[in-house]
Design brief:
The chain is α+β, with helices and mostly antiparallel strands and 413 residues long. The protein has 15 helices and 16 strands. It is 38% helix and 21% strand. It binds histidyl-adenosine monophosphate. Histidyl-adenosine monophosphate binds next to strand 6, strand 10, strand 11 and helix 11.
């Protein structure tokens, strides 16, 4: 048997129902904040991610699905959504539309990762991007929208970690300090960290290797090096979150694994599951990097493969119940039942009927197994008398009703 590739997942109908529920809730909430959906290509020119996400990041160095197409172009399956959305924003002249621009997406992503719990090679992200304002109010709006989402999904055990990684100016000063701290022990760091020492020392703080984590324990914190503007911005974000009673913890180790971030960065973590469910931050330089005008922006994305299991732990979602199963016997009854089912479905009722030519007994068994609420039995006599028996499958109670759509609908109410 051919198996699915490592790091991919089948979402079977029972789970799909939960995905749909979560997606609906997210869509509703984002809509109430004025976010509109955007869909961008599953593949882009490799250069977009090299420039946008950053040459020294794990995503670009190790995880991209990159190939040459038949025209000799280097193409990459999107490893994340922000770069593509920003490219679309620039390419379609969206900066001339009312600003700030609020966009959301629900898209599959591809990263050649070490597969483990909650970490796939094909995964789905729902994300939100807010472009066109550098106000701290936008940071607060984005973070509070994310926090409300968890509330709406009844997911309580989630913690918000916050940090500011400053702007390129204050980060320069910090990186020099960090280098001074790292240099004496550089040979003890993992090979990846060593290779990033010159170009991107900050990314080391994100390294999951035990030895690097230990070495970084007393590293200087970026928050001690913020310039006045970045400091004020961060103070304003924190103060307003406190006013809004959104609980957070400062974690100066959060640097995020993608290069485009500036100032506020945040992660919503499930400590129970041991992973980050939703993560994001400000990316004030990305639009310009991709070829647009200088446009500040902020956003986040959440992994559905991580969110849905958490949702499932905290909520009970029952499978859809068949409202009416029409058991029927004989050719005429079959045609009649088919027409009746179509009429009822058009009235938005979940109706099933036999489509396998099975015996009445087997049809009842199937209806029972599928937990149908009612069964209506139709044969030649019922059609002639314009009346049929409606059985309540939970109580076993039977009732003779008129055989027409209105009376059936009335009984099903
Ligand atoms: P990210 O931290 O790389 O950020 O991913 C965001 C979320 O996607 C993670 O917190 C996690 O829930 C999920 N995720 C990431 N990789 C995997 C994986 N291999 N398997 C399953 N889930 C995964 C970004 O992608 C940014 N584009 C977020 C953003 C939007 N920042 C600003 N705007």
């Amino acid at each position: 048997m051919i198996q699915r590739p490592k790091g991919t997942k089948d979402i079977l109908p029972e789970d799909s129902l939960k995905w749909q529920y979560v997606e609906e809730k997210v869509k509703e909430l984002f809509g109430n904040y004025g976010f509109e959906e955007i869909r961008v290509p599953v593949f882009e020119h490799t250069e977009l991610f090299q420039r946008g996400v950053g040459e020294t990041t794990d995503v670009v160095q190790k995880e991209m699905y990159t190939f040459e197409d038949k025209g000799g172009r280097s193409i990459t399956l999107r490893p994340e959504g922000t770069a593509g959305v920003v490219r679309a924003y620039v390419e379609n002249g969206m900066s001339s539309m009312p600003s700030p621009m609020k966009l959301w997406y629900n898209m599959s992503m591809y990263r050649y990762e070490n597969v483990q719990k909650g970490r796939y090679r094909e995964f789905n992200q729902i994300g939100a991007e807010l472009l066109g304002t550098d106000s701290y109010l936008a940071d607060v709006e984005i973070i509070s929208m994310a926090s409300q989402l968890f509330e709406k999904l009844n997911i309580k055990s989630i913690k918000l970690y916050l940090n500011s990684i400053g702007c390129p100016e204050c980060r320069k000063v910090y990186q020099e300090e960090l280098k001074k701290y790292i240099a004496p022990n550089l040979d003890k760091y993992c090979d990846t960290c060593k290779s990033r020492f010159e170009k991107n020392p900050m990314i080391k703080l994100d390294c999951k290797e035990k030895v690097c984590k230990e070495l970084n324990e007393n590293a200087p914190a970026i928050t001690d090096f913020l310039c006045d503007d970045c400091k004020n911005h961060f103070e304003n974000v924190k103060n307003m979150l406190t006013e809004l009673e959104i609980k957070y913890e400062i974690d100066t180790r959060i640097v995020r694994g993608l290069d485009y971030y500036t100032r506020t960065v945040f992660e919503f973590v499930s400590e129970e599951e041991g992973y980050t469910v939703l993560a994001g931050g400000r990316y004030d330089g990305l639009v310009k990097e991709v070829g647009g005008a200088d446009t500040p922006a902020i956003g986040f994305a959440m992994g559905m493969e991580r969110l849905v299991p958490l949702f499932e732990k905290n909520n009970e979602i029952n499978p859809r119940q068949i409202k009416l199963y029409i058991t029927n016997i004989g050719e005429i009854a079959n045609i009649y039942a088919t027409k009746l089912a179509t009429e009822l479905r058009n009235k938005n009722v979940y109706v099933e009927k036999d489509i396998s030519g099975r015996s009445l007994n087997t049809q009842f068994k199937y209806a029972n197994k599928k937990n149908a609420k009612y069964c209506l039995t139709i044969g030649d006599t019922e059609i002639e008398n314009r009346a049929a028996k409606l059985k309540n499958m939970a109580t076993g109670e039977e009732k003779e009703i008129e055989l027409n759509v209105d009376s059936i609908l009335n009984e099903l109410k």
